[in-house]
C-alpha cells in the first residue's frame, strides 16, 4: 500500500509518500517548498492572497506527484500558521476551489498527540533511558508542547502558545537594538520558567525527549549523526550554548551557511532548550530525528493495527491526566469514581438508543471524573468553577472542542429543573448540541444515584426494556434520598431518550 501526507507548516509545505516496510514506514518520495506562512500569521494575523496563490500552485504540483505514485487517499493537514490565521476559513475555501483538496487544520492538542505517540514509539526502543520520569518536549514554530511520561503513559501535559518562529517574529524588530539577541529571547522566555517549574513539582526528570529541525541541527554541531537517536549530555549542550549565545542571526547564517530565518529560529530554540534543561534538571536530551508529524500520520495510515496499541496508550493517558487534575484540585475521589462507574454502565446499556461511539464514551468518562472539581474554588456555584477549570486545563489527547464539550456538561450537570432550551442556544453546532444533551442526561442520572456521596447503592445492575430503564440495587441501606434525587432529574432524561428511569431495591 502506498499513501501520502501533505503538511502545510509555518515555514514550508511538504509532501511525503510512503509504503509499509514490515513493521515500519518507508519514505519513497519527499518534497518540500519554503513558503513561510508563519511570518504572515505571527506578524499580520492573516495570510496574504499572494501566498494563497503560491500555495495552491504547489499543492496542485504535489497532487500530481502523488497521483503518479498511485496514491488514492492523500491526506492534507495544516498546523499553527493556518490554525491561527484570522482568514483561515477563506483560505480553506480558496484552496478547495483551486485544487479540489480539503485541508484538515489540526487542533493544537491533536498535533501534539500525534508527535507524542511517535516519541513514545521510538523511546520504547531505548529501555536504558526508562529509569525515571521523562519529559517529552515538542517545540513547534508557534507553540511548545510539554508532557510528563511515567510507567509507559503520559500523565500530564502543558501546551504553551509560543514557539521558535513565533518568538523570533515577535522580537525581530528589537534585534538591531541589542548587542546579544539571544539574551533578549531568554529574558522573554523567563516568564514561563516558574509556571513550568510548579507544574513539574515532584517529578524526577533525568531525560527529556524531543524532535525537530532546530535540535537536530544543534546536535549535528556536536557531531551527533545517529539516524535514529542522538544523545546530548547537559554539559555538551551548555558548551554549545556558550559558543553560540553571543552570536546574532547574521553571524550564524554566514558561519553555518543557513538562511537568516533559520538562524533566528535556531537562536530561539537554543534559548528554549536552555530554559527547559534548567527548569527540569534533566541530565541529557534524547533527540529522535525520525519523528515528525507527517511520519506519525503515515504510520497511522499504513500500520493501523500496530498504531492501535499507541492509540490505546493515549486513551489511558487521557484518563490518568484527568485523574491527576482531579487530585490537583482535591476532588472527592470516591464520589468521582462512583459517578464514573455508574455513567459508563448507563452509557453501555443505552447504546442502542444513543448510538454514540467509543470516543464519546471517553468524553463522558472524563466529565464524570471532573464534574465536581469546581468545589475546590467554592461550593457555591461549583458547576461554574468546574466549567472554567476544565475549559482552561490541558488533558492529554483531547482537543479544545472536546474540552469545551466536557466543560459544558459539567456546567449543567447539577441544575435542578433543566430544560434543553436552557443551554441549547449557547451551542451553535447542531451535532455537538445533540451530543452534549445525551451525555448530560447520562451524567445527571449517574450523579443522582450517588447524591449522598457515600456509594450507598453499591454495584448496580441496569436493564433496558422498551421505554423503561431499571436500575437495581441490592443495598440494605435506606434509598429514599437517591429516589428523590432521581425524580428531580428523570424528566430531562425522559425528554432526551424517551425512557423512564426506575430505581428498584432488592435485598
Envelope shape: globular
Number of domains: 3
Helix content: 40-55%
Oligomer: single chain
CATH architecture of the largest domain, by name, is: 2-Layer Sandwich
Number of helices: 22
Mean pLDDT: 89
Major beta sheet summary: 6 strands, mixed
Task: Please give the alpha-carbon distance between the first and last residues.
Answer: 59 Å
Unreliable residue stretches: none
Q: Which descriptors apply to this entry?
A:
507 residues; alpha/beta; Nucleotidyltransferase, domain 5; Hypothetical protein af1432; 3 domains; 6-stranded mixed beta sheet; 5-stranded mixed beta sheet; 22 helices; globular
Give an overview of the whole structure.
With 507 residues, the protein is an alpha/beta fold. It folds into three domains: 2-106, Nucleotidyltransferase, domain 5, CATH 3.30.420; 109-298, Exopolyphosphatase. Domain 2 (Nucleotidyltransferase, domain 5); 319-505, Hypothetical protein af1432 (Orthogonal Bundle), CATH 1.10.3210. The protein contains 22 helices and 14 strands. Helix 1 packs across helix 6 (164-171), helix 5 (108-123) packs across helix 14 and helix 9 (213-221) crosses helix 12. The chain is globular.
In short, what is this structure?
With 507 residues, the protein is an alpha/beta fold. It is 52% helix and 17% strand. It has 3 domains: 2-106, Nucleotidyltransferase, domain 5; 109-298, Exopolyphosphatase. Domain 2 (Nucleotidyltransferase, domain 5), CATH 3.30.420.150; 319-505, Orthogonal Bundle (Hypothetical protein af1432), CATH 1.10.3210.
Amino acid at each position: 500500500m502506498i499513501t501520502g501526507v501533505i503538511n502545510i507548516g509555518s515555514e514550508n509545505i511538504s509532501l511525503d509518500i510512503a509504503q509499509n516496510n514490515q513493521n515500519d514506514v518507508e519514505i519513497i518520495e519527499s518534497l518540500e517548498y519554503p513558503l513561510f506562512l508563519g511570518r504572515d500569521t505571527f506578524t499580520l494575523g492573516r495570510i496574504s492572497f499572494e501566498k494563497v496563490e503560491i500555495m495552491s500552485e504547489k499543492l496542485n504540483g504535489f497532487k500530481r506527484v502523488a497521483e503518479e505514485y498511485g496514491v488514492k487517499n492523500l491526506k492534507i493537514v495544516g498546523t499553527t500558521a493556518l490554525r491561527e490565521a484570522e482568514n483561515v476559513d477563506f483560505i480553506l475555501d480558496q484552496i478547495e476551489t483551486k485544487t479540489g483538496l480539503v485541508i484538515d487544520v489540526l487542533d493544537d492538542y491533536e498535533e501534539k498527540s500525534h508527535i507524542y505517540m511517535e516519541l513514545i514509539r521510538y523511546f520504547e526502543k531505548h529501555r536504558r533511558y526508562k529509569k525515571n520520569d521523562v519529559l517529552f518536549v515538542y517545540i513547534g514554530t508557534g507553540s511548545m508542547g510539554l508532557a510528563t511520561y511515567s510507567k509507559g503513559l503520559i500523565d500530564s501535559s502543558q501546551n504553551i502558545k509560543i514557539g521558535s518562529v513565533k518568538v523570533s517574529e515577535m522580537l525581530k524588530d528589537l534585534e538591531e537594538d541589542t548587542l546579544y539577541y539571544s539574551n533578549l529571547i531568554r529574558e522573554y522566555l523567563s516568564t514561563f520558567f516558574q509556571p513550568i517549574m510548579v507544574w513539574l513539582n515532584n517529578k524526577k526528570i533525568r531525560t527529556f525527549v524531543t524532535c525537530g529541525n532546530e535540535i537536530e541541527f544543534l546536535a549535528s554541531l556536536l557531531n551527533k549523526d545517529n539516524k535514529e537517536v542522538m544523545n546530548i549530555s547537559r554539559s555538551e549542550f551548555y558548551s554549545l550554548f556558550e559558543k553560540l549565545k553571543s552570536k546574532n542571526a547574521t553571524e550564524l547564517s554566514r558561519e553555518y551557511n543557513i538562511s537568516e530565518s533559520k538562524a533566528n529560529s535556531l537562536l530561539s530554540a537554543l534559548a528554549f532548550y536552555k530554559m527547559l534543561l534548567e527548569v527540569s534538571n534533566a541530565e541529557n536530551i534524547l533527540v529522535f530525528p525520525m519523528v515528525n508529524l507527517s511520519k506519525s500520520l503515515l504510520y497511522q495510515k499504513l500500520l493501523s493495527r500496530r498504531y492501535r496499541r499507541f492509540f490505546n496508550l493515549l486513551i489511558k493517558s487521557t484518563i490518568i491526566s484527568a485523574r491527576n487534575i482531579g487530585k490537583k484540585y482535591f476532588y472527592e475521589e470516591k464520589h468521582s469514581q462512583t459517578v464514573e462507574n455508574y455513567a459508563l454502565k448507563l452509557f453501555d446499556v443505552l447504546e442502542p438508543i444513543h448510538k454514540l461511539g467509543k470516543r464519546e464514551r471517553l468524553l463522558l468518562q472524563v466529565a464524570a471524573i471532573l464534574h465536581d472539581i469546581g468545589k475546590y474554588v467554592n461550593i457555591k456555584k461549583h458547576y461554574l468553577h468546574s466549567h472554567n477549570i476544565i475549559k482552561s486545563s490541558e488533558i492529554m489527547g483531547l482537543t479544545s472542542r472536546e474540552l469545551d464539550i466536557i466543560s459544558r456538561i459539567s456546567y449543567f450537570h447539577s441544575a435542578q429543573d433543566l430544560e434543553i432550551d436552557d443551554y441549547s442556544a449557547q451551542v451553535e453546532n447542531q451535532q455537538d448540541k445533540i451530543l452534549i444533551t445525551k451525555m448530560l442526561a447520562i451524567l445527571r442520572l449517574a450523579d443522582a444515584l450517588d447524591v449522598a456521596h457515600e456509594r450507598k447503592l453499591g454495584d448496580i445492575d441496569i436493564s433496558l426494556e422498551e421505554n423503561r430503564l431499571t436500575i437495581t440495587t441490592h443495598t440494605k441501606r435506606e434509598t429514599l434520598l437517591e429516589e428523590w434525587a432521581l425524580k428531580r432529574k428523570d424528566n430531562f432524561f425522559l425528554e432526551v431518550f424517551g425512557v423512564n428511569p426506575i430505581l428498584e431495591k432488592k435485598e
